[in-house]
Amino acid sequence: MNKIPCLFAVLLLSAAYPPQLAAGELFEVPASVQTRWTSFENPSGAKGLAGQASQGRKGSPSRKIAAGETVTLARLNGPGVIRRIWLTIRPGNPDHLRGMLIRMFWENQEVPSVEAPLQDFFGIPCARQVSFECCFFSNPEGRSFNCFIPMPFRTGALIEVENQSPGDCDLLFYDIDYTVGDDLPDELCYFHARYRRENPTTPKKDFSILPRTLGRGRYLGCNVGVRAIGDYKFSWFGEGEIKIYLDGDEDFPTLCGTGTEDLVGSAWGLGAFSHLYQGCLLAGGPVWGFYRYHVPDPIYFHREIRVDLQQIAGAMAGEIIARIKPENYPELTDGHQVFDPERDKEGWHNFEVPQDVCATAYWYQTLPSPDWGPVESFDLRIKDLNLPGEK
Question: What is the pTM for the complete model shown?
Answer without folding.
Answer: 0.93
